[in-house]
Amino acid sequence: MRVLCCLDGTNGERVSRAVSALLGLEERTIAVLYVTDTGPREEMERHRERHLRPPHPPLPRREQMRRAEGMAAQEILEEGSRSLGGAEMLQRTGRPEQEIVQAALEWRADVVVICSRTETEGVPHLGPKSVGHVARFVLDHAPCPVLLVRPL
Amino acid sequence: MARREARARKGSGAGSGQEGKGLPAALILLPFFEVSYCFPRCLKFVSQPVKTVLITLITGLVLLGVMLRPWKLNEAVVALAGAGLLLVLGLITPQALLLTLVQDWNTFFFFLGMMGLSALAETAGFFDWLAAVTARLAGGSRRQLFLNTFLLGSLISMFLSNDATALILTPILYSLTTRLRLPVLPYLFACTFIADTASFLLPVSNPINIIVLSAFPLDLWTFLRFLFVPSLVAISINIGVFFWLYRGPLRGQFESKRLPPASASIPHQGYFRYTCIVLGLVAICYVIAAAVRVPLSFIAMAGALTLLFGAWYWKQNTLKETGKQISWSIFGFIAGMFILVQALENTGLIAQFGLLLLHLSGGTSEGAVLVGTVGTVAGTNLINNVPMAVVMTSSLHHLAHAPLAVQQGFIAATIFGCDLGPNVTTVGSLAPVLWLLILRRRGLEVSGLDYFKVGVMVTPLMLVAGAFTIWLLLQ
């Protein structure tokens, strides 16, 4: 079984527990996926245009941002991989919901493990709307079964 | 006041029949316009109503172009094309055009000095250093870092304008929070919002203020009397609402050990110290110059040139490289807007708009604040705050006979609305928001709408409280 675990930098432990508890009996191949969200960058570009500037920041700033994104992604993936016994690491950049679905397709995942919402979305963890837009999109569009992990 | 009247009288061939009256500088340059001015003579006998219709049509198309930006055209191209068309059709004379641009020299030089100062301070690592120190001072607390972001953004906006906060500090904070593995959005929002919310603390806090104050020179005390307290009120609301909105993601700590040392952001110690000293002096000079009514562009330009000298001395930057960091298209956009509004002025439409504003305000200070704020906020979000500020400034010239409190109410409301208004849609123009809504309807998740929601939630509160405070201060 090929298990694709979606990490967001805050959910490594939750995902690891879920995989161990629910998918632990079978022979499995695990990959951890982290998507660098381009949404904030797009917002910055819109803001620059509002200030009548070209959308992209100067090259040194772009490189600084890319470096920070790369370092954070690498750390998150390494932590996830360690906690899941040396899982394969997949790193992508784009809209998380779309990239996860695409990665599941390309990696030929049998199951996608995703948390209901990230800590960063900052709304109550239980009750209506407890499934964030990324998880909701993945539930709707994933090419395979999805294991939705609720908060601990 | 004399300048205002002179400005209102400033003629063009379109309406006033004052062709040939202008600055000597304009007359000296007149031969250069002869070629383009050959064509207009064919419209010389066209009646005034037709000219008015043509000018209104061209201005309307330009504003629509700025709003929708077809084929991703630069706003400057759209504005200059409109201004060029007016000139070619003889709807504005070369003299009036030159006079308009020459009279607004303070705005152009302030923009240039401000962008130069920011670019050269960025080269010195000034903003990176400030952000790193701010993060260290947070002591690992997410909430404290959030508050520090607001305070740093306010400080930078106050002395180096909102552009510096929105365009330079925001990507730095993005990198910092990404590196610290913090939720990025709250800090990003804090930075972009506070850039505008803190942009009427001082006259130099927003170039829009300079556009308005070039036409209506208020002394520092009057500016502070009407706008400093409303600014503090708006900043407090901004911080309070944001802390409530992001109470979830702001819980907890971050690992300070991930922070890069502040010194790592300084490429050259000597130039960095020099930059800190120059910026400190520029801040002091800004306040003094505003108090004694010296044009603020002098200070901005002098500061930028002093920093450029330092950059050249320590081999940190060159004139050519600094020039590349400056957005020259802004000058084209502003120039185009000044010309278009001047042409409109000559049709008498701007005077009518000014009188309409006065009528709607009921001739009272509270009405002036209310109408001024609502009008500028609506215009700012429909097009952009630069054209809105130019239109309002031009129309306010026609309120010379109104009571002083009404005039001051309109001036304060124009600055307030044009500075804070863009936060409603957060992009300063309705068009991108409409696009986002269309995309969402087609089933795409659009992060931009989240930003719009935050703007709609927090900005009306700030506008109401700020406008109410201005009205209280006018009593």
Reported by name, the CATH topology of chain A is Rossmann fold
Largest interface: chains, residues each: A-B, 41 and 43 residues
Overall spatial form of chain A:
globular
Total DSSP helices of chain A = 5
Percentage beta strand of chain B: under 5%
N-C termini distance of chain B: 22 Å
CATH 4th-level superfamily of chain A = HUPs
Rg of chain B, Å, rounded: 23 Å
- Shape estimate of chain B: globular
What is the succession of H and E elements of chain B?
A: HHHHHHHHHHHHHHHHHHHHHH
User: Which oligomeric form is depicted?
Assistant: heterodimer
Strand content of chain A: 15-25%
Class by alpha and beta content of chain B: mainly alpha
**Strand-and-helix sequence of chain A, N→C?**
EHEHHEHEHE
Q: Unreliable stretches of chain A, pLDDT < 50, 5 or more residues?
A: none
Radius of gyration of chain A: 17 Å
CATH class value of chain A: Alpha Beta
The side-by-side strand order for the widest beta sheet of chain A comes to 3-2-1-4-5
